[in-house]
UniProtKB/TrEMBL annotation:
One of its GO terms (cellular component) is cytoplasm. This is lipoate--protein ligase. GO terms for molecular function: ATP binding; lipoate-protein ligase activity; lipoyltransferase activity. It comes from the Bacteria. InterPro entries: aa-tRNA-synth_II/BPL/LPL, BPL_LPL_catalytic, Lipoate_protein_ligase_C, LipoylTrfase_LipoateP_Ligase. It is an enzyme of class 6 (ligase). Keywords: ATP-binding, Ligase, Nucleotide-binding. Signal peptide: none annotated. It catalyses: L-lysyl-[lipoyl-carrier protein] + (R)-lipoate + ATP = N(6)-[(R)-lipoyl]-L-lysyl-[lipoyl-carrier protein] + AMP + diphosphate + H(+). Residues 26-209 form the BPL/LPL catalytic domain. Its EC number is 6.3.1.20. Pathway: Protein modification; protein lipoylation via exogenous pathway; protein N(6)-(lipoyl)lysine from lipoate: step 1/2; Protein modification; protein lipoylation via exogenous pathway; protein N(6)-(lipoyl)lysine from lipoate: step 2/2. The keyword Zinc-finger does not apply.
Length: 333
């Protein structure tokens, strides 16, 4: 098995690296890498950020939001945990009948952990647990002539931050996306026979997976440039992270001195498809003009603020400010 040593803390770099290795390098044998990030939330490919995330807290704390190529649920990562990736060639004979197979790769991790006297086991789907509590989520996809299997390992992750960022306040959001199951979690460190740091745990795990003298794989300068280009153009783009949100609708309301304000909004691929005002307020404007003007703009609080500032600097509604309209639209998001 090949081993690729890395030192970046940027999840988007690793997602770009995975895709590049799968589609451009024509690997002839399995490759393994283990990596780490700063505070990050990673959406599954088919998930809705507005359902899964506590966006105000993430924005306030400047936590990175990204989206994976693989499906599955949203996870939180930090420097207290590890992510691992297996990239392996796809057998030509399997391409017509291929299916997701978690067990093949998860057994490698289970065996490594158990060899370290950590009592990990696989649950009924795609998670690893210790005494019934989740320590790892796994996901898989096919691209080019390769299979990607990657997963997380909670070693001494900030579980309080994870619960805060991945458990949004209640809101009236109706989505066609898939909501994550928020399993009970624990850290591997709590179940280690050794007093390991995150780094010493990583080193012990690598030895179990690839041995004491791994067959190292290296990236050329041209490879690095190509990975950085893919990272910037795809994984760092708003279109990838938010533009892939499943279609959803919301109804938010607030009461102000100017009356009841109720907003109905439909969003598809991160873009507003319709916005309707409802309430017992007064306005000297034809709000239908405003409703029409926002069709096609990004569903983003700053974008909406810029739209008001550039096109509607005066308040649209008597005794309800434009900022209060914006706050109502993005309430609990």
């Amino acid at each position: 098995m090949l081993y690729l040593a890395t030192d970046s803390l940027d999840a988007n770099y690793y997602f770009a690296l995975e895709e590049y290795l799968m589609t451009q390098k024509e690997l002839k044998e399995d490759l393994f890498m283990i990596w780490q990030t700063e505070f990050t939330v990673m959406l599954g490919n088919y998930q809705n950020a507005y359902v899964e995330l506590n966006l105000p807290e993430l924005e306030k704390n400047k936590v990175m939001i990204t989206r994976r190529n693989t499906g599955g649920g949203t996870i939180f990562t930090d420097r207290g945990g590890w992510q691992f990736s297996f990239i392996t060639p796809r057998p030509q004979s399997d391409k017509r009948h291929e299916a997701i197979n978690f067990e093949r790769f998860m057994q490698s991790i289970i065996q490594a952990l158990q060899s370290l006297k950590i009592p990990a086991e696989m649950n009924s789907r795609n998670d690893l647990t210790i005494h019934g509590k989740k320590i790892s989520g796994n996901a898989q996809c096919f691209k080019g002539d390769s299979i990607l299997h990657h997963g997380s390992l909670l070693f001494e992750t900030d579980l309080t931050a994870m619960a805060n960022y991945l458990n949004p306040a209640k809101h009236k959001l109706i989505s066609k996306g898939i909501k994550s199951v928020k399993d009970r979690t624990t850290n591997i460190k709590n179940n280690c026979p050794e007093d390991w740091t995150a780094l010493s745990f990583k080193e012990a795990l690598i030895k179990q997976i690839v041995g004491d003298q791994p067959n190292s794989f290296y990236l050329s300068e041209a490879d690095e440039l190509a990975v950085q280009k893919l990272k910037k153009e795809k994984f760092e783009s708003w279109e990838w992270v938010f533009g892939r949100n499943p279609a959803f609708s919301l109804v938010n309301e607030s009461v102000f001195p100017g009356g009841l304000l109720k907003l109905h909004c439909k969003v598809e691929k991160g873009v507003i498809q319709s916005l309707l005002f409802e309430g017992d307020f007064f306005s000297t404007h034809d709000l239908r003009d405003f409703e029409h003007s926002v069709k096609g703009i990004s569903f983003n609080k700053k974008t909406m603020q810029d739209h008001f500032n550039d096109n509607y600097p005066q308040d649209l509604i008597h005794n309800i400010s434009n900022q209060q309209i914006i706050d109502t639209l993005f309430k609990d998001l």
